[in-house]
Amino acid sequence: MGLDSNISLVRHVAAASLLWASGRHELPPKLRLPLAGMLVGVAYEGFLIGWLSQFLSLGPWGSLGFRALGAAILGLGALRLLVPLLPPT
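Structure (tokenized):
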């Protein structure tokens, strides 16, 4: 249950950062389409993970691994989109 909670935390932080980035006015136009795609991915991630787990007949550990992979991809993608919005130091 602890692993599942940490995976959910990563997913929620990434989703919140993507929502924050969607409201930024200085977002470059070339990042708007990937941002929209990631927001759609956040909305349907639970459905897609459940469907893939059932389709591939994965057990609970396989499903947890898929959730971890999805959260990692989402978090790294959000980080990649947010780095250009940070002020230079």
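The CA atoms of residues 11 and 71 lie 5 Å apart. Residues 2-84 form one domain.
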